[in-house]
Amino acid sequence: MIWSWPHFLPDELRCRCCGLYLRVPEFLDRLEDLRRTVGVPLRVTSGYRCPGYNQKVSTTGREGPHTTGRAVDLLVSHETAFKVLAAAVELGFTGVGIKQHGPAAARFIHLDDLVRGRPRIWSY
Fold first, then answer.
1. With bands split at pLDDT 50, 70 and 90, how would you rate the model's confidence at 2?
2. Which of 5, 21, 65, 121 could form a disulfide bond with 96, CB atoms 3.0-4.6 angstroms apart?
3. Within 10 Å of residue 37's Cβ, how many Cβ atoms?
4. What's the rounded mean pLDDT across residues 24-51?
């Protein structure tokens, strides 16, 4: 199977506990469009999470956005975070979580394209 998203590797999108990955081409297309739009590398700190791992690390339990293969957390801060936020909204990401306080190495933006009765943009 051909991998069509040159700026993201399957390994960085896999579950950290079991190595599984759900490939959702529409989501990856949107993520690739985001990378091209902002013009800088985007490091994925969390991609797919199996239900068990998600329950362990997230308040969203066994059915959070990351369990769908349609969510990522990107390590971004400062000017890059602003660019990612603006482009994400423009490109149709419907879930945007922002953590931009504390050390730069702990700052991130969560992106998904799910609509599930929760705020479209929120902060951590």
1. confident
2. 121
3. 14
4. 97
Q: What is the pLDDT of residue 116?
A: 67
| Residues in Cβ contact with 59 at an 8 Å cutoff, skipping those fewer than 6 apart | none
Location of structure tokens 């339990």: 61
Query: Which has the closest alpha carbon to 75: 106, 98, 54?
Result: 106
Alpha-helix runs per DSSP H in the chain: 10-13, 25-38, 51-57, 78-91
3: exposed, middle or buried (C-beta count within 10 Å: 0-12, 13-18, 19+)? exposed
Rounded to whole angstroms, how far apart are CA atoms 82 and 93? Answer: 15
User: Which amino acid, 98?
Assistant: I
Confidence of residue 10 (pLDDT cuts 50, 70, 90): very high
pLDDT grade, residue 23 (50/70/90)? Answer: very high
Closest CA to 70 of 88, 52, 51, 48: 48
pLDDT(117) > 90:
no
CA–CA distance, 22 with 89 (Å, rounded to integer)? 23
